[in-house]
Amino acid sequence: MTKFSWRKTALVAAVVPMLALSACSSTGGKPADSGDAAAGGQVASTERMKIALITHAAAGDTFWDIVRKGAEEASAKDNVELLYTSDPEAGRQAQLIQQAIDQKVDGIAVTLAKPEALKDVLKKATDAGIPVVSLNAGEGVSAQLGAFTHFGSNENLAGEAVGTRLAAENFKKPVCVIQEQGHVGLEARCAGVKAKVPATEILYVDGKDMTSVQSTATAKLQASTDADVIIGLGAPITLTLLKSVTDAGSSAKVASFDLNADLAQKIVDGAVLFTVDQQPWLQGYGAIDALWQNKRGGFTIGGGQSVLTGPSLVDKSNAADVLTFAQQGIR
């Protein structure tokens, strides 16, 4: 399988056989599988740990199912009780972190989409001696907020990779669609695109309402007849933008960030040019496994640097191979 990868450091978690594991849920993603059936493999003999994974997932975003699946596999291997909760509203995410502190968890894995709202409660966690890792969002502030490592893609680098690819294919008027204003990672993606294609326009939409996303993007494409490509920052958003292009009668092409099986199929079919995948399974797996390793031997992964899980380019040349893994729910 051919793929391109831009990275500052390369520390990739090992893949292990899948073991089903129960976990508590809030909004975002599908319910965890229940039962103790194992597909094989050996569970760690270390003392059982309790780890909280707290994300900013919005309900129905399939991206988080993939993060969670990676976390569940690591938990099953590492003899970890995984407590998964999520809330897209930063204040409520902070409350979930406090809840984990009150439960005296052995570790916290957290996304930092809006870090300013989380800094005080994360200080409480580290003051209580609870190790913290971050994932997915907030790479630039992770260490300042007390995390000993971060798992994710460098979003500026990912945006620049998209911009470089679009410029090479002679696109001059992109529209970059941000579904959550103020999300540091999403803002960085579009800034990276704009750095390489200066005429890039930013369009803000309400990612919690796909009907509104579709109508807002349709209106933008109708008004901006010179827009030659529209970029979604998540698979569900991009799939909705395909409808907007049709509704607007626009000739704009569609590109994307992130991945699910439906989007991979659209790339295979030629309806979407490409996507830049941050490989979220690795983020969930790596974050949980890093906390276990820290407990197991005082190990700290990353050498003071983030562990990059992307960006990884998926286009027509490798989408069929990636689709196989996406259909398994791990890409």
Instruction: State the separation between the terminal residues, measured CA to CA.
Output: 14 Å
Low-confidence stretches: 1-40
Radius of gyration over all CA atoms, rounded: 19 Å
Q: DSSP strand (E) fraction?
A: 15-25%
* SSE order: EEHEHEHEEHEHEHEHEHEHEEH
| Number of continuous helical runs | 10
- What do the pLDDT scores average to? 89
User: What characteristic shape results from the CA principal axes?
Assistant: globular
Q: What proportion of the residues is helical, as a percent range?
A: 25-40%
Adjacency order of strands in the biggest sheet: 1-13-11-10-9-7-8
Structural class: alpha/beta
Number of strands: 13
* Most strands sheet: 7 strands, mixed
Q: Could you characterize what this model shows?
A:
By secondary structure, the protein is an alpha/beta fold. It has 10 helices and 13 strands. The protein has a 7-stranded mixed β-sheet with strand order 1-13-11-10-9-7-8, sandwiched between helices. It has a 6-stranded parallel β-sheet with strand order 3-2-4-5-6-12, sandwiched between helices. α1 (63-78) runs parallel beside α9 (280-297), α2 runs parallel beside α3 (119-127) and α4 packs parallel to α5. It starts with a strand and ends with a helix. The relative contact order is 0.16. The model is unreliable at 1-40 (pLDDT under 50).
